[in-house]
Specification:
By secondary structure, the chain is mostly beta strands. The protein has one helix spanning about 75-85, and strands at about 5, 15-20, 20-25, 40-45, 55-60, 95-100, 100-105.
Length: about 110
């Protein structure tokens, strides 16, 4: 392509880049486009470490969107569903919401 002008350049060049057919824009400096790629193997798994956040459970009514309190034991959300459908006999559909911690790590 072009080469930066070194030393004194003609007055009309504005110390630009010399190109075949005339002078172009100023040289900004050396630009290097270099990338280093490294492929690695990663693993994703549920976090069962002692310091991991607990797995929590909840149930959500699909009719009105009301949600049970979060619990580390699934029995409490199940009891909430039974109370909720007793108070709202037409609500028959629920969603299970599980929040489980996961961790990723690089394999060597």
């Amino acid at each position: 392509m072009g080469r930066p002008i070194r030393g004194t350049a003609p007055a009309h060049s504005g110390r630009g880049t010399e190109r075949p057919g005339g002078y172009g824009q100023r040289a900004v400096g050396a630009v290097s486009t270099r990338a280093v790629l490294r492929y690695e193997m990663w693993t994703l798994e549920p976090d069962r470490e002692p310091d991991a956040e607990p797995t929590t459970y909840a149930m959500q009514c699909a009719v009105d969107g009301e949600t049970s309190p979060l619990s580390e034991d699934f029995v409490e959300p199940q009891n909430w569903v039974l109370r909720h459908c007793g108070q709202h006999p037409s609500h028959h559909t629920y969603r299970e919401v599980i929040t489980r911690p996961w961790r990723s790590w690089r394999r060597m």
